[in-house]
Structure formats: structure tokens, C-alpha cells
Automatic annotation (TrEMBL):
The lineage of its organism: Bacteria, Pseudomonadati, Pseudomonadota, Alphaproteobacteria, Rhodobacterales. Belongs to the small heat shock protein (HSP20) family. The keyword Disulfide bond does not apply. It comes from the Bacteria. SUPFAM superfamilies: HSP20-like chaperones (SSF49764). Keywords: Stress response. PANTHER family: PTHR47062, SMALL HEAT SHOCK PROTEIN IBPA. It comes from Sulfitobacter sediminilitoris. This is Hsp20 family protein. The keyword Cytoplasm does not apply. Residues 30-141 form the SHSP domain.
Length: 156
């Protein structure tokens, strides 16, 4: 596997630590990403997303959805199995799992629902008004521009 050195990026940029850390994290995985449980990530519109995770065999009490340090952490632990059950075939996996999703800036988890063996997690990007683009009015009146200019006087 190829490794990349991001040290020059750290030395020559300010404020891009998150991007470099994310690239370092993605490139450092050895390709053994877990495939259980399967999930989908949907983009519903420009600022809305949904993560759907197949959690057949788990009840609401077995599931946990938590947001911590810009990460969405979904985990499940099955309660102890009832004694006395004998399975001839056990194809429904109910093993414990933990899935982590890194959240971008201003992405908030707005809700979660467990329906028909699927855990749906709703996400919304909520950009503050101060960061949204705004249109600046262009004036053509010369007097308005001169009014805003401050005259500087010589001190000496």
C-alpha cells in the first residue's frame, strides 16, 4: 500500500487541518472496512440527508445513536439470548456493532426512527446566517461614496 506524507501540507497551510486529517484517516485504512450492518446514505435535497442502516433482529432498546466530536456513532448490543432456544439455522446476524460517520461542519442530526428493521437517521445542514452568501448592493451615486470617505489631516 502506498503511503503519503502530509507534513508539507501542515507546514504551508493554516486552518486546513481537518481536510488533511480526513485524507490521512481515509488513506491509512487497510481496506478491511466492516461491511456489517449494510447501510445507505441518501441525499434528499441540497441540505438534507438520510442514513439508513439494516438492523434486523434489534429492538429500539438494543440500539444507540450518539453524536460526539463531529462524529455520528451508531451502535447495537443484543440483550442476552433466551435460554432453551435451539436453532436449526441461524442466518439473522444479531452481533454487536459500532458504525461511525464523520459529520461535516454545520451538519446536525435531527432525528432517528426504527421502522421495519431499518434505522433511519435524518441529518440537516444548518449554515448560520452569518456564513450564508449575501448580495451587496452596488450604488452608482458618487456623493454616496464621497460621504463615506474620511479626510486625513497631516499631523506635522
Amino acid at each position: 500500500m502506498r503511503t503519503f506524507d502530509f507534513a508539507p501540507l501542515y507546514r504551508s497551510s493554516v486552518g486546513f487541518d481537518q481536510i488533511a486529517n480526513m485524507m490521512d484517516r481515509v488513506l491509512s485504512t487497510d481496506g478491511t472496512t466492516p461491511s456489517y450492518p449494510p447501510y445507505n446514505i441518501e441525499k434528499l435535497d441540497n441540505d438534507s440527508y438520510r442514513i439508513s442502516i439494516a438492523v434486523a433482529g434489534f429492538s429500539d432498546a438494543d440500539l444507540s445513536v450518539e453524536v460526539r466530536d463531529k462524529s455520528l456513532i451508531v451502535s447495537a448490543r443484543k440483550a442476552e439470548e433466551e435460554e432453551g432456544k435451539t436453532y436449526l439455522h441461524r442466518g439473522i446476524a444479531t452481533r454487536a456493532f459500532e458504525r461511525r460517520f464523520h459529520l461535516a461542519d454545520h451538519v446536525q442530526v435531527t432525528g432517528a426512527a426504527h421502522v421495519d428493521g431499518m434505522l433511519h437517521i435524518e441529518l440537516q445542514r444548518q449554515v448560520p446566517e452569518a456564513l450564508k452568501p449575501r448580495q451587496i448592493e452596488i450604488k452608482s451615486d458618487v456623493k454616496a461614496i464621497e460621504k463615506d470617505v474620511v479626510d486625513a489631516k497631516s499631523v506635522n
